[in-house]
Fold these 2 entries.
Entry 1:
Amino acid sequence: MGAFSALEIGASALTAQRLRMDVISQNIANANTTRTEDGTPYRRRTVLFEERSQQAPFSEYLSDASKAKLVGSGVRVSKIVEDGSPLKEVYDPGHPDADENGIVRMPNVDIVTEMVNMISATRAYEANVTMINATKGMANKALEIGRA
């Protein structure tokens, strides 16, 4: 694994965490949305990650040394899924979306949970930026050694 591989892995992580932050922001923005395009309350969404594996040629799988070549090459978003947890029910008979009993079905978004997830995504993003900067620093030092 070279410096460029490390940069590629870091870039994939930055892209994945940015999408995660976008989805979390969407959840927070829709925390009080009682009616979507299909007429139901907004449902919280989450991002699922999976390892982006390195593809080696088939001939390399036949050798004993191939196990050393099977290293990950970053992360990717496998899908964005809706949270199946139950919606919140609030008594508000004056609300336009209230049923005959005055109950309004609200989104299953918990602002505190979303803020914790946002902090986690931000920290992961910062860690990957630090890793990319360290990799660039190592590459620059290697170039300096070559000049001497």
Entry 2:
Amino acid sequence: MVSEKAEVVVFIPHPDDAEIGFGGTAARWIREGKNIIYVLCTNGDKGTSDPEIKPEQLAKIREEEQLAAAKILGIREVIFLRHPDQGLEDTSEFRKELVRVIRRYQPETVVTVDPYRPYISHRDHRITGRVVLDAVFPYARDLYAYPDLIEEGLQPHKVKEVLLWSSDGPNYCSDITDTFDLKLAALFCHKSQIGHDNPERKERMRERASAQAEGEEFELAEAFYRIEISR
């Protein structure tokens, strides 16, 4: 397999998570010329309280919504792993899937959800974040981790940095002042989750982005915990 480089790979627990945590930054980075790949870990088939919608129908709807959101932002490619919602586990098999993607695209930056929020958080978020961090270091880096990937032509790769959204202790703010409207447009593609265009939700999102930009020279931000990897 020939590697297909992309500067950024984003690992996402459920459809809509990336737009909430990273959508404005994704749009800005794409404007700046970066290639970004989305990797959806689950199909989101549990994300409804409507008994008339069956899981397999919801999974199809949410996949279409994610593709529409990605198109608005300019995401180069969306990879669907299609694990069942609420079904992720910290296994060697799941980790290998993520290592395969990292080695294939050789990103400088990996983005995912912070797995270390205390107390109540979605289990798929915790599992995704933890397995992504393990995949980045040391598994994607080490020659003899998953040696059969070498046989596929996927050489070890060292990621330079990781950004974690939804962190309780962010140390990095990304300016989304000029891409906030694109973030909202992409987010509202997920109609099965948030309904149609909602002025009140838009205002709450703006207030949150403004709060995350506190102390910065720009108006609106997304906040992350940034990890630089030197080994």
